[in-house]
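Re: that chain you flagged

S.,

Sorry for the slow reply, it's been a week of failed gels. I finally had a moment to sit down with the sequence you sent. For the record, here it is as I used it:
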Amino acid sequence: MSDARSGAAPAAGSACASCPSFRLRDLERLGEGIDRWDHLVALAGNPNTGKSTVFNMLTGLRQHTGNWPGKTVTRAEGGFAFAGRRFKLVDLPGTYSLLAASPDEEVARNFLLFGNPDVAIAVVDATRLERNLHLVLQILEITPRVVVCLNLMDQARRNGLAVDDRRLARDLGVPVVPMAARYREGFETLLQAVHDVATGNAHCRGFRVQQQSPELKRAVEELVVQLEAAFPGLPNARWVALRLLDGDDRIIEAVRRGEFRAAARAGGDLALVQNRGPAFPQDPSRARDAEAGVPQLRNDLAQQPGSPSRPGCGSDEPRSGDRVRSHPDPEGDR
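Prediction finished late last night. Pasting the structure tokens below so you have them in one place:
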């Protein structure tokens, strides 16, 4: 007998199969040579969070580097295989927000919106968690399929900081993996979490700000209906509606030009669509209706008592830019 009652040792492998280090035997770093994949993974995060270390650790330091179409922003991608699945990893530019105030932010936002990644890994600095979570919350507004890589835990410990990763995972509704990427601490757990989210073995509910005024809720719902009618199958229509109400000129222009349908086909880069010329939606008149209705909706919101000067941000979605600017200037950090 091989069970515990017999006093015999468990069969080789049975005790190790659940061991994190054992799972590394399933990892194959594919570097840049990946022409087919089962799952697409986006790697996002603030600058100086160790995102590149995570990327190189997964791909084997053989990433393919180039530029995003129509931009000077560096594009890096690579691949890895794990537990019988092939993953393509796209390293998005480091950014503090998704408001698209810079080419880096626009590239990151568009890929998350239209690239339809199966998983988004959000790398955060455990020593600067408050500021880093701003980007995480913005990503969760776009997709709930997120794995938070709580990196630099070694520095947090040296600074006397304790992070309750289990509580954070419960609050965010997604897996949170404590890591010290430079020492490969937590690497195996990250791999398993990405695999589980990509394959549907882990259910992500994704935190969203729930507080909202009835007026904002009505405006968003009305605009979502118009957007979905103009752009059938548009992903993340709610997020697009919020940005329209916030007066995002780039999103307004995308609606005007009918770029959203083609952006999804182009793998999430609106610049690529622009280079090919305008791509009008199935029903251009409905796109014009959606665009025309935005000023009136914003004006209605502005008339409500206690409304902010930028009505689209309201109580439903605090403006990410405001939250980032409330912290020290990033240029003054490491």
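What I noticed first: Residues 21-199 form a domain with the Rossmann fold fold (CATH 3.40.50.300).

Talk soon,
D.
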